[in-house]
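Collaborator request log, item 7. Partner lab (contact: R.S.) asked for a structural prediction of Carotenoid 1,2-hydratase to inform their binding assays.
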Amino acid sequence: MTGYLLRRGRGDGTALHVYRMVAMAKKSVALLLLLLLLLFLIPVPAFAKGEYRDVTPDQRVALPGHLFYAGAYRIQWWYFTGHLYDERGREFGYELTFFAFGVQKRDYASEFGMRSLFISHFAVTDVAGKRYYFMDKADRGAFGFAGALKNRLKVWVGKNLLEGNGHKMRLSAEDGNLSLDLTLIPEKGAVLHGRGGYSRKSEESPLVASLYFSFTRMRTEGVLRIGSTDFRVGGTSWFDREISSRGLGENNAGWDWFALQLDDAREVMLYLMRNKDGSLDRYSSGTVVYRDGRYRHLSLQDFSITPLKRYTSKKTGARYPAQWRISVPSEGLLLTVTPLVEDQEFLGKQSTGNHYWEGTAAVEGTAAGRAYVELTGY
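Returned to partner:
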């Protein structure tokens, strides 16, 4: 669900003029941060009008095409989380994500012309060591250093890479003393959230929405390196794909997202869109996926999520929920979700500039398993 990272702000002609001038300059870390800052300052509707296509209620996910880069839309992401174990049972969680933010659709003869900004977030949780590692990258895609293809599944930002198809995918990432190289094979078909993949996110407008689908259980094998140690790992991953052109609604503050992989071969995706006044947007929803791959939509009335504990980040001062009771009465589920490591807060200093909590958690109760949880806007 992550990807609604854009924040509405005030943009004007001066900001746009500076943006266009700077976009032609040479690439540097400082330039990327400046470009991203300006991107966040320009309101989504004004900037996108006449250039990027909105997601509308009549649209449906079409595969395999929507696996690939969708240049008609402004915001999109390929999002992987997973639970890995080495040969001795040592447990790790991981997150590897790729974002593409459209800046403008103009064609440039020069490589210095900027159409999109590509971002990757990479994190690993060492459960036994109680350690959380994270790093991020941003690149405007000049000279092939980052990009995404429209005719097949390939997305890359520096050494972080996703490629493959709907039957088999390869993920690799490397940054300093942390790397992974994984092969992922779906054990179930694609799950189309909402109505055929149209997933509305806000009461304010049916255009505050995304095309959203997932592979909720992917058999995963490969190698994870931390420092000088290689771990041969296997386990399960979850893949989310979302495509949109809008950011958060004016009244939205953030969201809580849960991806539960249960030992009985069911999966559950739930998200709460939180409003600034503390209420929940009625378009908060979810999906339950059965052992045989069938799935059904959950409305906000079908489930409840209650925070049981909280923790305050020493890095940012943000106060996050730290344990939850989840109830889905129609599925006989009454669950407690508990983070396996308390501090799993990601700081996007080199890319998005925001912070969020995203990490691996244990699931106990009427069913057991593992979960990935994401918390934004705290």
